[in-house]
Amino acid sequence: MNWKQLLSAKRWGYEDRDVNDHLDARSEFQRDYDRLIFSSPFRRLQNKTQVFPLPGAVFVHNRLTHSLEVASVGRSLGRLFYNLMKKENPDIDEACPFLQEVGNIISSACLSHDLGNPAFGHSGEAAISSYFTEGAGSKYKEQVSSKEWADLIHFEGNANALRILTHPFNGKDKKGYALTYSTLASIVKYPCAAIDGHVSGNHHRKKYGFFECEAKSFAQIAAELGLEKDPTNPQGYLRHPLVYLVEAADDICYNIIDLEDAHHLKILSYKEVEELLLPLCGGESLQARLEGLTDTGSKVELLRAKAINTLINACAEVFVKNQDKFLAGTFESALMDALDAPIVEQMKKISKISVANIYNAPTVVQIEIAGYKVMNALLEEFVPAYLKSNKTMFDRKLVAMIPEQFHTDRTDAYGKIRAVLDFVSGMTDVYAIDLYRKIKGISIPTLD
Description:
By secondary structure, the protein is mainly α. The chain has a domain at 363-439. 56% of the residues lie in helices and 2% in strands. Strands 1-2 form a two-stranded antiparallel sheet. The protein starts with a helix and ends in a 9-residue tail after the last helix. The model has no long low-confidence stretch (mean pLDDT 89). Pfam families: HD_assoc. Residues 59-264 form the HD/PDEase domain.
């Protein structure tokens, strides 16, 4: 793979258009960022759980604020990568004009990396999958192909993001969000189908990156950008190199910022946060500044900023140093796992504490359980109602609640199930709970 082909301004749905046909203050990749910022799926992230229940009196991150912060870190990673490349080769812009846009490409991909995640975080994904593996949806196995069934039993938010951005939903632009090919490819962490994914030890196939219905779309993107075929999987591809930087930006943010939220919620003390972050901040050189602050929240913010800066610089250096491996598709770990040993060990400590004290905190577990029940119940109502040929009056009323954009002309079981999943997975936490209460008769709608 080579950067000149990997960085393409060709736009999904406008393949025949010359990108130089118009003059604009923004580059094609900046236009991607702006389209995402103003899009409905992105705005809905403000009411989707990141880790903790949506904020009450104390602010914690939701999917939208998380995505904005990941995009900020991603832009820095991209700019630092370009600056290091430019330092080594001052004439690099002539050989690869779009390399200077890497920061914009990565920040756009970071904005959209969670677009496909359903309500209630990972418990929402688990609820959708379990509906087909253990619940009432298991009866549909004989009505779909093996590839389609693999999609259903392993719902994947990353694959759903690609669908949201490219699928021609009813009444919407048939070209989807018409992002550039490079931005779309940079979103797909595991460029293979569900049936070929979930392979232990293979970084390109740890999960999967596109549904069966988007396989041809991704193949088109891969061909344009020159993505190499995965030698372990003839039907799959090697990652676009920028995926590693998008992934690193996400890893940096959730590892560090979850500690900040935990401190705000008094799950972790300031001392506990300091012990975890200070080794990533230059240690003793920061102590004088910390001692000059009396507000513990400000201290945590300073530690967070310094830790993120350390990780950004370390990741960019590893990416440049191992660029040949990334372009060859032979770099077989996450970027964060390849940093210097002391950083990796400290990140492991953070992860261990996060799992024990944050991700298993009572409020987190409670929202996961509630979300699991809500999502499963919605599928139990809407999937059979939408699939039935002879619908009852109740079935017809349920189907009428599905917005027109999610309806499909497909008559096969997979196509209809996918239409319902588009509807349910796009719900915010608040909307899913409200709809669940209404269709279960727990709350009655009023006219005001």
